[in-house]
Amino acid sequence: MKKEKLQSCFVQLVFVAAVASVWEATARAHIFGARSELIFPTLEAIGSAFVKNFASGYAGVSFWIYILNSMKLLLLGLVLGIAGAVLFSGLSVASRVFYYIYNLVVSVFDLIPGVALLPVIIILFGIRPSVIVFLVVHAVIWPMSRNILDGFAAIPRIYVEAGKNIGLNQLELLTGVYIPAATSYLVSGLKVSWARAWRGLISAEMIFGIASCPGIGLYINQMRTNMKNAEMYATLIVIVLIGVLVQYGILEPIETHTVKKWGMTK
Amino acid sequence: MSSVLSIRHLKKAYPGDPGRSDGSVLEDFNLELEEREFLCILGPSGCGKTTLLRCIAGFEPYEGEIRIQDQVKCEPGTDRIMVFQDFNQLFPWKTVEKNIQYPLRKKGIRDKEELEQITAEYLEKVKLPGTEKKYPHQLSGGMKQRVAIARALALKPKIILMDEPFAALDAMTRNRLQAELLHISETEDCTFVFITHNIQEAIVLGSRIILMSGSGKVKIDHRNTLPRPITPSTDGYGELWKLFHDALEE
Predict the structure, then answer these.
(1) A164 and chain B: CB distance < 8 Å anywhere?
(2) How remote is the C-alpha of A193 from its chain's centroid?
(3) Helix, strand or coil for residue B235?
(4) Which conformational region is residue B3 in: left (phi greater than 0), alpha (psi within -120 to 50 degrees), or beta?
């Protein structure tokens, strides 16, 4: 097990190093002539841009403020979205009629990209940070609900009957049986939701950055308009790093301490 | 002795079941069970044994009347605890002790010391002391069934309903668990309804043995008076075995 992990780490490192060398070679070869510095800045340029991002930010606003703003909106949206998904999926267990309706609602809204809703949301709310929160909630609540509903449907009947047998009421069945029994679905729902939320957030910020609440998406756009492409790439790396941090720092530990510990997944 | 379980005119049908002409599984089924009896129910597959048990447990709607100590019961409750055949009846997200204590807490026992003492007592009874902190996936099939029995006993139900709990175990484990369950049934103030396909199991365990026909009727209702513990070498075992065997073959 441990050996396999080491092996996969090694392979992945070699791959990343190979991609970086190809990138660097392309950058130095100046294949695209004058545009080459914009399309393929050297690794050194991207590296120093990465440092400069954090050191000086843009137009007097620290890069940390951008990150903080993004994370604030993201977290709020995630919490609201997950809470909503748990609440509505829970109601679907209690009422068949609600389940039929909610199932349809989830299927329909899961298909609509958040960005496509932007015009309507802007008319509704105006251009405010809450619009971005709304988009994050939209990105989270449907895939999360889909996973929870599927998870509830896949629960072995025996757990529910054992729960009823020991005298659990509807609410206790939900919290004591349905939710723990569907944990592997909840965790994979979290993974999908987190990825969708992160993407939705950046897209929304890029389409309309709010000067009063500047986020990472807006920062990329500002770098684009100023032709600072090395800074743009450096910001992309930051986006990936935050994603990786959440994946390995939060989501994986959740998995190890629940479904893996309980022997519900391999 | 008073009747702990009384079933009158029980009727149960699964409409739309293609295997049956009118979907009926049980029709006008009647049963009186006395306290502390160990009832074994034999019968061919599909005769309605499990359906009967599920009706008693309150998992299925039915027509007719099922009374527990003179009270009509339609919903599941802790006075009738089911032990399933499936090894996965314990909650995998709870340790052994939490699996036993969770229902007790719901029943109103909150004192930590009392809970621990009950857990230890019943794990001792099923010969699994020291497994408190283990998760179900760390136990073998036989051990899981033991914990399920301990969980049921700890609730002190009027009746324990057992749906072929040992059917998926190897022969040796099965024999050992039969002997232990017999011992438990002699010491606990509890009534058992035990479903099995296995004639040997029914004779060894049952103080009363019912054989159901394929159409869900009681064909034999036998009071088992052989001296315990019963083994195949006990006088009268062979005749009894033949009686049930022939009835099942018909």
Answers:
(1) yes
(2) 6
(3) coil
(4) beta
Q: What is the pLDDT of residue B142?
A: 94
DSSP per residue, A128-144 = SHHHHHHHHHHHHHHHH
Alpha helices in A155-251 (DSSP H): 157-165, 170-173, 179-181, 183-207, 216-225, 229-246
Size of interface A-B (CB pairs under 8 A): 63
Neighbours of B20 (CB within 10 A): 14
Which residue from A166, A180, A263 is facing B103, i.e. has the nearest CB?
A166
* CA–CA separation, B116 and B124 (whole Å): 12
A interface mutation test: which of B75, B80, B90, B91 has the most A CBs within 10 A?
A: B91
User: Model confidence at B18, in pLDDT bands (50, 70, 90)?
Assistant: low
- pTM for this entry: 0.85
Fold of B3-79+157-249: Rossmann fold (3.40.50)
CA–CA gap between residue A264 and residue A260 (Å, rounded)? 6
Q: What is A63-260's CATH number?
A: 1.10.3720.10
Beta carbons of B135 and A261 less than 8 Å apart:
yes
Element containing residue B26 per DSSP (H, E): strand B24-34
What tens digit of pLDDT does each residue of B177-206 get?
999 999 999 999 999 999 999 999 999 999
| Cα of A177 vs its chain's centroid, Å | 27
Instruction: For chain A, give every domain's residue range.
Output: 1-27+41-48, 63-260
The answer to whether A148 and A178 have CB atoms below 8 angstroms apart is no
Domain boundaries, chain B: 3-79+157-249, 90-156
A167–B76 C-beta distance less than 8 A = yes
